Amino acid sequence: MTTTAATSTSSGATTDLAIEVWGLHRRYGRGASAYHAVRGVDLDVRAGAVTALLGTNGAGKTSTLEVIEGLASPSEGTVRVLGLDPVADRDAVRARMGVLLQRSGFPGDLTVREVLTMWHGTLRAPMPVDDVLDLVSLGERADVRVVSLSGGEQRRLDLGCTVMGDPEVVVLDEPTTGLDVERRRDVWDLVLRLRERGRAVLFSTHHLEEVEELADHVAVMHAGQIARRGTLAEIVEGHPSTVRFATPLDATGTALDLPPLLGEVSSRGPHTTVRTHDVQAALHRLLVWADEHAVRLDDLRAETASLESVFLEIAGRTTDPTSTDTPTETTTEESR
Ligand SMILES: Nc1ncnc2c1ncn2[C@@H]1O[C@H](COP(=O)(O)OP(=O)(O)OP(=O)(O)O)[C@@H](O)[C@H]1O
């Protein structure tokens, strides 16, 4: 069965947006000591697509997801899940949304099968317990008590409960935390299967490779805001590539004058970095210049823009291995 969630807008038109967030703010506490964790987030999550909320620790991912999950009200802004308010219409939304929290609280003395059977009883049209055990590879652990499960097994049990009701919308807060590489891949497969079935999946993560593997759309969150969003290609597009090399010196140890290199050139300690939108031309100019001047370029490296370079820049760091040094010079050379 493949279904696509379609919800009605206020104008009566249908949309394939399963989750819509406009101008979301979330503050903890009141008055002068309030902490403003989410600062004007807009987000769309489509049916039949996987959306990643990628962010550093404390970026505000969980604070945002909790509002979408109906566990907290927005301080400001609007959230709609399948066209409904997840707090005011909580019962209607919960029947159609599966949620994986960062931590679950199943009683430790219940077995895996007992937990799944208990959860089964709370859902309208659940999958059989044995199917869920297979789906999350816990068949052989069915009679083990929750307290004796490893962290990864507990995570898979949580995930089993999340998908047992075959929800139209699935929200996963860091679904692969604590899982080894093999189990992480199992979760990825599960997410992709949900997408094939037309489900809308929103997950938060710190893992770049998880985003690259799974996400159709990415929202990069930092300091309570969405710093960038779009497809992976859209996010990376427009971000400069880098060329790095040990700063060439003359016999007296003075840095040689470089040719125009089609980008922003900066020197940190013994290295020079060029950030450019035309890495091939910049490299060509550099190598021709080095040949003509009989200069050897040590530690020469070229790196095209990637999700990692975008993410690290947003997080306020750089991929430059010499970045702990103090910058000594920055010039923009397009105009030369
Ligand atoms: N109940 C709370 N009271 C006060 N501050 C809070 C509360 N919950 C979260 N915060 C703060 O809000 C900010 C955002 O936290 P949140 O858990 O949403 O971030 P996150 O992106 O999910 O981080 P992580 O990846 O580490 O889970 C953090 O600075 C956090 O300390």
UniProtKB/TrEMBL annotation:
Pfam families with a match to the protein in the record: ABC_tran (PF00005)
Tell me the leader sequence span.
Answer: none
User: Which InterPro entries does the UniProt entry name for this protein?
Assistant: AAA+_ATPase, ABC_transporter-like_ATP-bd, ABC_transporter-like_CS, ABC_transporter_ATP-binding, P-loop_NTPase
- Domain of life, per UniProt, equals Bacteria
Q: Which organism is it from?
A: Nocardioides flavescens
Recorded family membership: Belongs to the ABC transporter superfamily.
The GO terms this record gives for MF are:
ATP binding; ATP hydrolysis activity
Q: What name is this protein filed under? A: ATP-binding cassette domain-containing protein
